[in-house]
Amino acid sequence: MSEYQPGRNSTKISTPSLEVLAVRDRLLQTIREYFRQNDFLEVTTPSLVAAPAPEPHIRPVSCGAAFLRTSPELEMKIVLASGCRRIFQIGPCFRRDEQGRFHHPEFTMLEWYRTYADDRDLIADARIILQRIAHSLLESNLLSWQGMQLDLGVPWECLSVREAFIQAAGWDPVEHFDEDRFNTDLVERVEPWLPHDRPVLLKDYPAAAGGLARLDPDDPRVARRWELYVAGIELINACAELTDPAEYQARFDAAHRLHDQRGWEPIPENSAFLEAASYLPPCAGAALGIDRLMMLLTDRPDIHDVLIP
Amino acid sequence: MYTASDLRKGLKIEVDGEPYEIVEFQFVKPGKGQALYRCRIKNMLTGATLDKTFRSADKIGQPDLEERDMIYSYSDGDNFVFMDAQTYEQVEVPSEILGERRFFLDENIEVKVLFHNGHPIDVTLPYFVEKVIARTEPGARGDTATNVLKSAQLENGYEIQVPLFINEGDVVRIDTRTGKYADRVSKG
Predict the structure, then answer these.
(1) Among the partner residues A184, A205, A225, nearest to B36 by beta-carbon distance
(2) Is the ipTM of this complex over 0.90?
(3) pLDDT (tens digit, 9 = 90+) per residue, B9-18?
(4) What is the pTM of this model?
(5) Which one of A97, A109, A161, A193 makes the best mutation probe of the B interface by having the most chain B beta carbons within 10 Å?
(6) Rounded to a whole number, what is the distance in Å from the CA of B19 to chain A's nearest CA?
(7) Domains of chain A, start order
(8) What is the second-level CATH architecture of the domain B128-186?
């Protein structure tokens, strides 16, 4: 770890402590080491884009005639379509109006993709990355966050969304999906009910809450998507990705209609992506919120505590 | 109207025709899901609090609130009469809105009166007022300890705890937000 020489004025400036900055540096280094050792290519895709991925509940920040990316997803898939097998990226993403204890309009995302893989194959990556980070920064598998003790070494609790909802909220969102009820119960009943002493993997989301995930061939009512919760914080989202351009078009159209109803600024069609999508091999991708992981590693209660103001 | 993204701690909103202040605010958004705005809101008329969750698409009422600089004139017992410093218009404020603060009013004291839909609902006094101690046991000479307190009364009957060195006739400063003794201004 580099030596930090605090400047004379540093105590008067409200920045995260040097400890926080050092943890971040080490964290990014550990992540890069893992991906290098596993033959991933680090890529840098544009932050300023003409057409970010239209997602139903994400509003992009517009910037002149263009937008700041809400995620690097589409551009990374263009890279995959061009023949890269394994890629990762660490970089800023921007989402309008997202401001809270776990949200900031600009945040740092780690996103990685494997081709010829599905969402389950990414669990091993996530496990090893988190354990290496814990060893490198905490010198054990034990994490303590806001009074909660977690063991990152024990097997993760793995639950389907359906099981979790039946137990915690008393209904089955796969059988009958109701978006408002799903969101509210997820936040108010299911998330608080999840075990907080170990990482929890919530998998197989109802198709309508699947984002850009492929539907399960054995049960098309569910999407191949999982979320990892650590100490109740949603940390990693992963999907087996769609490869059918027509299906992408259909999901983008649905999101466009929702944005339009709300009076959001229209996002142009991403024709470069839709063309590339026909060459997209089967693949899976995951995204990890670096700032939230920083909160966990430094035991900070609010995302703003780990960001430079 | 406000939209959900305007919500924040301290904002005043209207729910079922009554004004509320947001006292706690939490933005939550499950991955790929809708944003939820979880609020604890306090009724500005009754002081009661309740939890309410708003969604992105919700439109939230903006209460008609106006704060005016006014001067205290007189009281007829049940009502306290204030005068608008600019228009000289007189407004009656029921004593239950003032509560204990009615004891800290002096003629010509400048206050802020908050109106909801044209009706007075709250009065903000200066943070500190000066009052004469009318009755208390004689103070022990040389006892300057401020942590030992005794009872005292203002001319208008308000009971207050003061340090032992305070005597009848002393002028003290009272914090109108807590109703408590702050310090001594002068000896009687």
Answers:
(1) A184
(2) no
(3) 999 999 999 9
(4) 0.83
(5) A97
(6) 24
(7) 18-306 (3.30.930.10)
(8) Beta Barrel (2.40)
